[in-house]
Specification:
The protein has helices spanning about 15-25, 30-45, 70-85, 85-105, 120-130; strands at about 5-10, 50-55, 65-70, 135, 140, 145-150. The protein is an alpha+beta fold. A 4-stranded antiparallel β-sheet has the order 1-2-3-6. A two-stranded antiparallel ribbon has the order 4-5. Strand 4 and strand 5 form a beta hairpin. Helix 3 runs antiparallel to helix 4 (about 85-105). The longest helix has 22 residues, at about 85-105.
Protein backbone atom coordinates (compact mmCIF):
# COMPACT_ATOMS: atom_id res chain seq x y z
CA UNK A 1 0.00 0.00 0.00
CA UNK A 2 1.37 3.42 -0.96
CA UNK A 3 1.55 6.20 1.56
CA UNK A 4 1.96 9.91 1.67
CA UNK A 5 5.57 10.89 0.98
CA UNK A 6 6.63 13.50 3.54
CA UNK A 7 9.84 15.42 2.88
CA UNK A 8 11.05 18.22 5.16
CA UNK A 9 11.90 21.35 3.18
CA UNK A 10 14.02 24.33 4.15
CA UNK A 11 12.39 27.65 3.31
CA UNK A 12 14.69 30.62 3.06
CA UNK A 13 12.48 33.51 4.11
CA UNK A 14 14.01 36.94 3.83
CA UNK A 15 12.41 39.78 5.73
CA UNK A 16 11.03 42.19 3.15
CA UNK A 17 10.15 45.33 5.08
CA UNK A 18 8.10 46.72 2.18
CA UNK A 19 6.01 43.53 1.98
CA UNK A 20 5.60 43.58 5.77
CA UNK A 21 4.45 47.22 5.69
CA UNK A 22 1.97 46.33 2.95
CA UNK A 23 0.57 43.47 5.08
CA UNK A 24 0.30 45.92 8.01
CA UNK A 25 -1.19 48.74 5.99
CA UNK A 26 1.54 51.04 7.33
CA UNK A 27 4.17 53.23 5.73
CA UNK A 28 6.84 53.27 8.46
CA UNK A 29 7.99 51.73 11.73
CA UNK A 30 9.94 52.99 14.70
CA UNK A 31 13.51 51.73 15.03
CA UNK A 32 12.69 50.20 18.43
CA UNK A 33 9.75 48.23 17.04
CA UNK A 34 11.76 47.15 14.01
CA UNK A 35 14.46 45.74 16.31
CA UNK A 36 11.83 43.83 18.33
CA UNK A 37 10.35 42.44 15.12
CA UNK A 38 13.78 41.39 13.87
CA UNK A 39 14.42 39.49 17.10
CA UNK A 40 11.03 37.75 16.82
CA UNK A 41 11.60 36.93 13.12
CA UNK A 42 14.93 35.26 13.85
CA UNK A 43 13.46 33.30 16.75
CA UNK A 44 10.29 32.27 14.92
CA UNK A 45 12.15 30.96 11.86
CA UNK A 46 13.34 28.16 14.16
CA UNK A 47 9.76 27.47 15.28
CA UNK A 48 8.54 26.68 11.79
CA UNK A 49 7.75 23.28 10.36
CA UNK A 50 7.84 22.92 6.56
CA UNK A 51 7.15 19.86 4.43
CA UNK A 52 6.48 18.79 0.88
CA UNK A 53 3.64 16.28 0.98
CA UNK A 54 3.23 14.00 -2.05
CA UNK A 55 0.12 11.80 -1.95
CA UNK A 56 0.44 8.25 -3.27
CA UNK A 57 -1.83 9.07 -6.23
CA UNK A 58 0.13 12.20 -7.27
CA UNK A 59 1.45 12.48 -10.81
CA UNK A 60 4.98 13.66 -11.61
CA UNK A 61 5.85 14.26 -7.96
CA UNK A 62 3.12 16.92 -7.74
CA UNK A 63 2.48 17.56 -4.12
CA UNK A 64 1.70 20.20 -1.60
CA UNK A 65 3.67 22.64 0.49
CA UNK A 66 2.73 22.65 4.15
CA UNK A 67 4.24 25.26 6.47
CA UNK A 68 3.16 26.23 9.94
CA UNK A 69 4.46 28.10 12.96
CA UNK A 70 4.14 26.21 16.21
CA UNK A 71 1.94 27.12 19.13
CA UNK A 72 4.72 29.00 20.94
CA UNK A 73 4.59 31.65 18.19
CA UNK A 74 0.84 31.99 18.68
CA UNK A 75 1.50 32.41 22.41
CA UNK A 76 4.14 35.09 21.72
CA UNK A 77 1.71 36.99 19.49
CA UNK A 78 -1.00 36.73 22.17
CA UNK A 79 1.45 38.06 24.78
CA UNK A 80 2.25 41.00 22.48
CA UNK A 81 -1.50 41.69 22.13
CA UNK A 82 -1.86 41.72 25.92
CA UNK A 83 1.04 44.16 26.32
CA UNK A 84 -0.07 46.49 23.54
CA UNK A 85 -2.86 45.94 21.01
CA UNK A 86 -0.97 48.07 18.47
CA UNK A 87 2.23 46.05 18.85
CA UNK A 88 0.19 42.85 18.95
CA UNK A 89 -1.08 43.62 15.47
CA UNK A 90 2.49 44.13 14.24
CA UNK A 91 3.58 40.76 15.67
CA UNK A 92 0.49 39.07 14.22
CA UNK A 93 1.35 40.51 10.81
CA UNK A 94 4.98 39.47 11.28
CA UNK A 95 3.90 35.82 11.73
CA UNK A 96 1.76 36.06 8.58
CA UNK A 97 4.68 37.61 6.69
CA UNK A 98 7.08 34.90 7.88
CA UNK A 99 4.80 32.10 6.71
CA UNK A 100 4.10 33.78 3.36
CA UNK A 101 7.75 34.68 2.69
CA UNK A 102 8.68 31.08 3.53
CA UNK A 103 6.09 29.75 1.08
CA UNK A 104 7.18 32.24 -1.58
CA UNK A 105 10.82 31.17 -1.18
CA UNK A 106 9.81 27.63 -2.18
CA UNK A 107 7.01 28.41 -4.67
CA UNK A 108 8.03 31.71 -6.32
CA UNK A 109 4.74 31.98 -8.28
CA UNK A 110 3.06 32.88 -4.99
CA UNK A 111 4.79 36.26 -5.19
CA UNK A 112 2.55 37.16 -8.15
CA UNK A 113 -0.70 35.40 -7.18
CA UNK A 114 -2.80 34.16 -4.32
CA UNK A 115 -1.97 31.08 -2.28
CA UNK A 116 -4.71 28.60 -3.17
CA UNK A 117 -5.97 26.25 -0.48
CA UNK A 118 -6.81 22.84 -1.96
CA UNK A 119 -8.99 20.30 -0.16
CA UNK A 120 -6.64 17.93 1.71
CA UNK A 121 -6.79 14.27 0.69
CA UNK A 122 -7.30 11.59 3.34
CA UNK A 123 -3.55 10.83 3.44
CA UNK A 124 -2.83 14.48 4.20
CA UNK A 125 -5.56 14.60 6.84
CA UNK A 126 -3.97 11.54 8.47
CA UNK A 127 -0.59 13.34 8.45
CA UNK A 128 -2.18 16.40 10.08
CA UNK A 129 -3.67 14.17 12.77
CA UNK A 130 -0.44 12.30 13.50
CA UNK A 131 1.30 15.70 13.73
CA UNK A 132 -1.15 16.80 16.43
CA UNK A 133 -3.00 19.14 14.08
CA UNK A 134 -6.73 19.32 13.45
CA UNK A 135 -8.38 20.19 10.12
CA UNK A 136 -11.75 21.93 10.35
CA UNK A 137 -13.62 20.89 7.20
CA UNK A 138 -16.43 23.42 7.71
CA UNK A 139 -14.16 26.44 7.52
CA UNK A 140 -11.21 24.89 5.68
CA UNK A 141 -8.53 25.61 8.24
CA UNK A 142 -6.06 24.06 10.65
CA UNK A 143 -5.85 24.60 14.38
CA UNK A 144 -2.63 26.54 13.78
CA UNK A 145 -3.21 30.23 13.20
CA UNK A 146 -0.15 30.72 11.00
CA UNK A 147 -0.07 28.06 8.31
CA UNK A 148 0.03 27.56 4.54
CA UNK A 149 -1.11 24.47 2.65
CA UNK A 150 -0.89 24.93 -1.11
CA UNK A 151 0.12 23.02 -4.25
CA UNK A 152 3.84 22.54 -4.89
CA UNK A 153 4.79 23.11 -7.62
CA UNK A 154 2.27 25.87 -8.31
CA UNK A 155 -0.69 24.61 -10.34
CA UNK A 156 -3.04 27.57 -10.56
CA UNK A 157 -5.17 29.65 -8.28
CA UNK A 158 -8.92 29.90 -7.95
CA UNK A 159 -9.67 26.91 -10.14
CA UNK A 160 -8.13 24.57 -7.56
CA UNK A 161 -8.88 26.48 -4.34
CA UNK A 162 -11.53 25.04 -2.06
CA UNK A 163 -12.44 28.58 -0.98
CA UNK A 164 -12.84 30.08 -4.44
CA UNK A 165 -16.56 30.79 -4.07
CA UNK A 166 -15.92 32.72 -0.84
CA UNK A 167 -12.73 34.46 -1.95
CA UNK A 168 -13.13 38.26 -1.91
CA UNK A 169 -11.04 38.37 -5.09
CA UNK A 170 -13.16 35.81 -6.92
CA UNK A 171 -14.67 36.95 -10.21
CA UNK A 172 -17.25 34.14 -10.03
CA UNK A 173 -19.01 35.18 -6.81
CA UNK A 174 -21.79 37.16 -8.45
CA UNK A 175 -22.27 34.64 -11.28
CA UNK A 176 -23.07 31.52 -9.27
Amino acid sequence: MSELKVTPVQPKPEFDVMYFLEVCGETRLSQELLEQLETAWNDWKDRMAAFKLVPSMAKNDDGFLFIYLNESVEDAVEKAWQESPENGMFFHNLAITLVMCSAQSLVPELLESCTPLPRPMSEVLDFFETSGLEWNEQIGSLNRQYAVYTPMPYRGGCEICMQSDTCPNSTLRGNA
